[in-house]
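can u do me a favor
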């Protein structure tokens, strides 16, 4: 089981991040402790949405979509 998650920076709310994990709590801790290069500058982070997916392939497809232009537009309207 995978989770697609959306993060928003508390220090700069315009900064957002989309990722995928099997353990959302651990992954948020990694982002907030600076272990992720892409998110370390804008700590701390909070979850905006967590989407649980049974199918790993579909979870990866959703993450990829949310990182695309049309996926970002969808997330802006419905998830952020």
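np, heres the sequence
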């Amino acid at each position: 089981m995978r989770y697609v998650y959306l993060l928003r920076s508390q220090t700069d709310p315009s900064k957002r991040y989309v990722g995928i994990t099997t353990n959302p709590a651990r992954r948020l801790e990694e982002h907030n402790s600076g272990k992720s290069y892409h998110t370390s500058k804008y700590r701390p982070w909070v979850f905006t949405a967590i989407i649980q997916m049974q199918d790993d392939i579909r979870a990866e497809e959703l993450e990829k979509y949310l990182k695309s232009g049309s996926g970002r537009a969808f997330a802006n309207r419905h998830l952020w």
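The mean pLDDT is 97. hope that helps!!
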